Fold these 3 entries.
Entry 1:
Amino acid sequence: MTYEKSLIDRRGKTFPRKNQYIIDLIDAKEKGTSPQYTKANHPYNIKLKEYQEKKKSLLEKAKSEANSDKSLPRDGKLKKLYIEKTVSEKMRSFYEENKDLSYDSLLDYRLNELNITEIPKIIDHDKFLKDSLEDAKTRQQNLTNDFVSEKIKFIEDDRKVLKEKYDNDLKEVEESFKEERISKKAYKATKEQLKQKFKDQNRKIDYRNPEISIKEEIESLNYKIKEDLNHSLKILEEERSDERRRTPVEVTKEKPIKAILTAPIPGLGQLLNGQWQKALMFLIGSLFIFFVAIPYALGFGNYQGEGIAGLISLAQGGKRLDRSIIFMIEGILALAFVLIAVCIFVGSFLDVYKTEKGQMKGIRPNSFFETRKFLRTDGFPYLITTPALLIIIFIVIVPIVTAILISFTNMDPQHQNKFEWVGLSNYVSIAKGQGIAGKAFWNIFGWTILWTILASTLAIVLGFIFALMVNNERIKGKKFFRTVYLLPWAIPAFITIMFFSIMTSRGGVITEAVNSLFNTSLDIKNNTVQTRTALILLQGWLGHSYIFLLTTGVLQAIPKDLYEAASIDGATGIQRTLKITVPLVLFQISPMLINQYTFNFNNFSIIYLFNGGGPFNPQVYGNLAGSSDILISYIYNLTMNSQYQAIGAAITVFISIILIAISYFGYMKSSAFKEY
């Protein structure tokens, strides 16, 4: 970066340079000649150095004299203000003489003048409040019992008058109500108004008691002394920040050397820039990097693993008791730590780099007050989300990554303690219908798709139809029907599923009733088609209540004017339903309908509780699945019952991709999402 002839402040306003050394460098470069002076012997730099040295000396002397004043208040904030006021007054002539030397000296002058102007106002206001407080305390001490008793007597007389007026007003309102001049609603409202007015007036009378009024005054003044001082200091800091914003800074550096040199140690660059609050945060990050992340990644502090190296080896060739899964998890944790460390490195470097680039343009770095203000406003979302993000990394992302990586291994009953990487072989065997999954996978996948579509669609259709029926104006007993239709949702699904499982088994009430009524021989839980049909009907009954509730809420919100206008235009009931009701309902609840399909795709409980995935047909589904098993229950059997974790993880990844795709495209295509 080359020197520019002008500078900009934080507001974007341009200023001419004052540093004569830099101006001479720019002129020499334009003319193609060598500079007359070096940086060390340039007259301007010598004068600037003399200013800094004299400023330091005068400040030390002024602060020493100010601190030696025995009349300084004990309060820390006020003491600081008194010292700043005294120092500013002593430094005033020096700053005024040198204000045109540089932009730093100009800022010193402006800040000094601000202190001289504003600090006395703060001190005087604080003194006024404290004097008022002392006066109130004196008046409190001088109160006599006779004086208070006399005032209370007058107060009680006023209370009696007020009570009589209140009673008369109430009597008038009651008479108006009895004579039916006002309604019952107006009568109650007027009584409440009179009651509230009576309370407020009594409260005002209370403060005429000198004991109460002086006590409240003292409490108010104590609060005001504290708050007004804090508020005034904030205003003063804001005004100082404004001066910093509108006064550029002039530095001699041409490259962000500080950002490059301090990059290995996050926080060091911020410390050199004078931003110690940022430096503290990044230095804590440095401690994490050098004492946690890097050692853990190299295998130090691991329970069994070897950090990132253990993620590659998976304990192959290690000790007999070493477990590959532990090596994998600790390797993933190591990668997470390294990722966080990289973010800290990059964040620190970019912060220092941005600050240095800004300084070269003329923009001053943020002060502590400005940084704190940023963290309370624009930076607040980052402060809130960062801890949540870290938690998500360790309790959500790490398990997900572990499951994905397991799908690329040979973890099975023969390789529980030690397994190795096998690449895409699990996915290839699933795709080809080979291995432990065999052809059963695609049969189960087909039934899962069929189950999801039929069960979800049935629930949606039933819920929508019932909602339309109950919402019809001609239907009586709406509360009763709404209660009935909501019962399946109100009752725990576990109870409903187990009830129907018992009722539809051999000898069950439902099975026997159907057999005797239609002279059939139903065997629902031992027949594939019957079991699947029962599951679809049962889920339709369980799921329709939620759709009914959603649809009912939307139907009640549709303006009746739309239906009236359509009727005038000659639309039939079916046409009004198809052209008005259905589009408006779908617009509102389409995201929730997508949730129904994704939920049923992984509806493990109904499959497991109703018939345990049966009936079983080993010739078609093998020994690990039944004819009513869906993919999620199949995964449960593979992983929990048979220890085929790798295949189960591969199927899980397959399912996740499908659900993510369905959810994403479903939401993106829905009208509600687009409108939002």
Note: The chain is about 75% helix and 0% strand.
Entry 2:
Amino acid sequence: MSEVTRVSSGTRPGAGFRGDVQGLRAVAVLLVIAAHARFSGFDGGFVGVDVFFVISGFLITGLLVREVATTGRVSLLGFYARRARRIIPAATVVLVGTVAASAIFLPVLRTTEIFTDAIWASFFAANVRFAVVETDYFATDQPVSPLQHYWSLAVEEQFYVVWPLLLLGLALVVRRRGARGAEGGTSLRALALGALGLLTVASFAWSIWATYDSPATAYFSSFTRGWELGLGAVLAVALSVPVGRRVPRWLLEGAAVVGLLGIASAVLLFNPQTAFPGYAALLPVLGAALLLGVGGLPGGERTGVARLLSWGPARLIGDWSFSLYLWHFPVLRIAGAHWGERSLSPLHLVTALGAIVALSALTFYLVEQPFRRGRWWRLPRVAVALYPASVGILLLALVAGNGWVDRRLGVNDDNPAITSADYEGGPERLSEDPVRALVQASVLAARDGRPVPGRLVPALRGIRQDTAPLGECDYRTGTTRLCPVGDTDAARSMVVIGDSHARAWTPATNLMGERFGYTAYNLVYSGCPASQAERLDPVTKREWPECNDFKEWTLATIAELEPELVLVSSAALPKVIALDGTSVVGFTKPKKFRAVQLDGMRRELEMIRALGPDVALLANTPKLPREPGVCLSSGVADLGGCLFDAGADARRYQLGFAKVGRQVGATVVDAEKWFCYQQQCPSVVGNYVTMRDSEHMTTEYSRTLAGPLAEELGLEQP
């Protein structure tokens, strides 16, 4: 993505500047931009990144092999100095620019998370960051970091660290064997091909397995992508051997067309549902390798495809490709978030594309070129110092950004909390229940345009991480131990089961156990519903044995514990396995989908009741169209801007669960009354932010519901 397009071959025709490689870069970056801009027909444009990987492996290896052939060694300082000049200035400018633009145009809550992403990106570890948090690269229903594209830069930089060291080690082996001159060059090439071939095959095998086993992580991993750079490297070493015979022109022309068609086919055939990288990545990777290989052979630069790729405008875009790649994603994502559009309108899209071109041109001519060509920066020790300097500059930008965030968050500090007394005696009669009355008052306050209260609980900064703690009993880790909470000395017990919705209730149920004398057990597993309907693994999109095993263990544990009460809470499932166990049912078949969901909940409740305890279904917490924390931190003038209607689809399913619960004799708690009034849901009740995201309670608000929930269940002191 970032190398000087100079290569060498033993025949010399491929030596020097290769315009076709610049053109291939242009193709790659335009495909990526088209995919991220959501142009119709370019769903598979993300394969442009794979083309970049092949080019990077090819060019870097060509430079290193030529250096070893010329000098007999690899200058690590010189190599890393060249990388620093080429990559760090532009990457730093875009990082700082993205941090600044995020602070200005995005909600504060998003901004703080982007600051974290920027730190990871500055250490060339963005791929690790997004893999660890299991980011879905193709997600369209949740905010995407404008720095997510730095993952590919991280993969390349990690390759640049390892590969020169490996080549240097191989050169030392050759030298110790006493091989010199042509013999030494041949030995080195043989060792390099052997080592590269082995690593490339191993990486490809791992890519296949990881894409099947953990696709979200596999997409960003250096281990699953290394073979793409490795193939380019193998090609560069192979082309360093002189070609004795001229390849027929018709064969070169045909191979070049096949290579281009391979990339084009991947763009047209692939989409976000394609398991990637794995086997699928072979198509664009081999296509790119074929184009690079043909261009490096005698006469290859004269093929029709090579001449097309060497066309002046294509070469210009190739020159700008690094800056274009760096700028396109933050501009598109910040523009979309600022204008509130998942897919930008034509006018906004043209504006964004214009900004991308302008920023890329400025970065290329004012940043890339001066650092690459400036005489002072050619001093290796000076160039290497660019890296710590860039980290320092970014940290200063983040300090300034955090100060800006604190000022924005403190704007409402003097505003009072909403109270029921504010609306007593008004035209709308408030509920006698103090919690419901406060919810009513909060809705009325939002309708009246009251200012956002200060000192919100929890604070907006970090609200997305406000997940109910489970201690050592996070069952996603595979543990089967029990962690009693509540009143752990009590003679009676209760069990909470379900997915992340159930987990959100645990601060309330833990406190309820303390107050009313129950030992509480939280048998909750995020994503795994308390339902006999089988959910597909949200990562692999296949059967989910871990979830099924957990649900069986949960029922066995309830039988063993013999609790007095079991509390059940689960969201509606995005996809389930049909009743016959042979097919997958989703929203496209609404009647069958609803039947599977409701039947799954019915059977779950019946099985629990058969074990003896009382059963309570905690139903109908709302699903909001927007995250309250994001809305409240976006500079809204008053609470009215963050007053939402309860999600109709989720509400319909929860009401269906409630009906099923009543039919089987379970106690049903309709929780909507603690969040909404007349199906309008305020982001703030009193001074409590109710939801940490669009569908999960904050821990603090959950605790406030311990008393009302206990009253609803008719719990009494022991």
Note: The radius of gyration is 30 Å.
Entry 3:
Amino acid sequence: MPAFWRDHPWGLRAAALVLSALLAATLQWVFPGAMVAVEQVSGDLTWRLGAAATPERRIVIVDIDESSLETVGPWPWPRETIARLSDRLRAADVAVQVFDIVLDTPRAGDALLGRAWAEHSVVAGQIFSIDARTTPKVAAVGGALASAGCPSFAPTSKGYIGNSRELLSDGLSVGHLTPMVESDGVVRKIPAVICHEGRAYPSLALAALWRAAQTGGPAPLTSDWVWSTHRFGGLFALSPAGWLSSASLPGMAVPVDDQGNLRVPYRLERKVFLSVPASQVLNGSVDPALLRGTIALVGATAFGIGDVTSTPLSSVAAGVEVHAQTLVGMLDHRLPYTPSGATGLQILAMLLIGVVLLAVVTRRRGAPVKRLPIAGAALALACYGGAATGLWVADLWLPWFTPAVFALLAATSLATAEHALTRAQRERLSAHLGAYLPAPVAQRLMATDPSGSMQVNLQHVSVMVADVRNFSAFAAHRPAQETAALLHAFYCIAVDVVEQHGGVVENVVGDSVLAVWNAYAECAAHPSQALAAAKELSRATRALLSNRARPQDDHLVQPLALGIGIETGTAIVGSFGPARRRAHVALGEPVSVASRLQQMTQDLSMPILIGPQLAEKLPAGSTEGLGEYLLEGMSRQYALFAPSDWAALVPTEQLWAGATASRPEGGSRWTDELRTPGSNSAFAPHPQRDA
């Protein structure tokens, strides 16, 4: 990860949200049909899940079904029969008769039927073609609104299928039966009005509603119909794109979208509508109480003559059901619509989603990478739930899929960003831990939880302790910056040499380094590797230590030199202490022996001393015995060894300095006596080790 994003995590999170928003907007722009299709299907599901089963008795469907055809005769029925059906409905005190049929062919009896329709508050049907490629003109159209002109949002028709002219009287209301069929064949909308030759023609349900409001008998549609459009945001974000209203229908405003369509409210199950066969109405076998005061929808469901369509509630439904659902919505003032500020509402929803996801990120408990996908899915479902609630509670058809897509994309992007940040932080922390702890230990600590228990292992290891001799006296005569720089260079060389020979620097204290082999990774030849590392470290630090000039003001300060002790054996390697403050150390006899051997390198004027167990594992001829000595703090004597080529590791000036440093009378301490086996009188106790 670039350092900029690692150091500015909130910038990375903001960029992830912006990128998700742009991607969601791009998907909506590139695939608008797919977005709308998902919302339409989800809306259908909402209608089905919430459809009420309460019986609806304000509307009765008079069904021209198969049984009616068997009783009365094949369709089309004589005009006299249809007139008699209208008379029967009038006699039953039906409030409004709505004929969901079109009688376009002139036939005998048209005048009789026309008079009956004019007297009985009938609303007849007609069909418009809103496809510019289809322009039939069959029979005659009627029922235009008296207002001049058409609303700008209404669809325009070039063709129609109307009724026989003799059926159209001045007092007859007519409504169109033209649905808006979606690409999947489902009827979800109906044009509120359709413009034809400069005049506006209402839908069947709208004409039926207006007719039901008339109490003075048949009359033409008046000029009190008005339409308005609204395309403003702000306080009017929840307003529809347009609406129709009439003084004859106080409190009623029919909301429409920017294409002049009203959305059909499928709030009722199909079975809630009372349906009676037309034949029973004709023969008078229907209880008049069932029809009194109702709006009677006369439609055909018989095979071959009925208009079959698909609705959100059923893939096979009669067209009369669509008009019935629309009428109920108008009567209840419950017509769903898409707000004009839908885009602004989507943006607001996306902002809220972003805030919630950022809150999930900043929550202290738990891993955001694990919580974010769950939160994203939950927010996507919440978008649908909010849209469903808005539909059922406030009649708002809210576009929800784009915010839902944004929620999923934003959660994924933020989870990816958080994973990258966490990984970068872990890598940075691991690098820092690896600088203070052995790399395997640091990696284990990164993968486990803090623990206050003792976590140790017994390992057969080789140990090397390397110390800069005479450093304390040297540092007393040098600036702190210079001594610090020297130690830094020494540590760097030591770590490089140890790691190149397969070891791990376990600890650094003052001017000494503790390294182990075979503690964290299997190393069969660790004794030889430890000796090779000791020799290489001695050679690598020679120039660093010898180039340091002695202070001129103190001739007693000895030159710097490196003393190294190495030993093999079983040691305890692990972590100790409470969870809040742990210490990782290597303990055991090989560590103690190697430390004491390093101290004795100055007494014996040896650059490297080897313990007895390590010497046993080295090839013959690679070591030189120095005798047995009682090491400080140890209860027994140890045989000490030096590399057979030790002389090549010591510069001439250091040999001389070692020979004269502690000579009481100028004689050398480095005598055959001191190297005689069993001679140990001069080495207990030892001078205090340099810090």
Note: The CA atoms of residues 662 and 669 lie 7 Å apart.
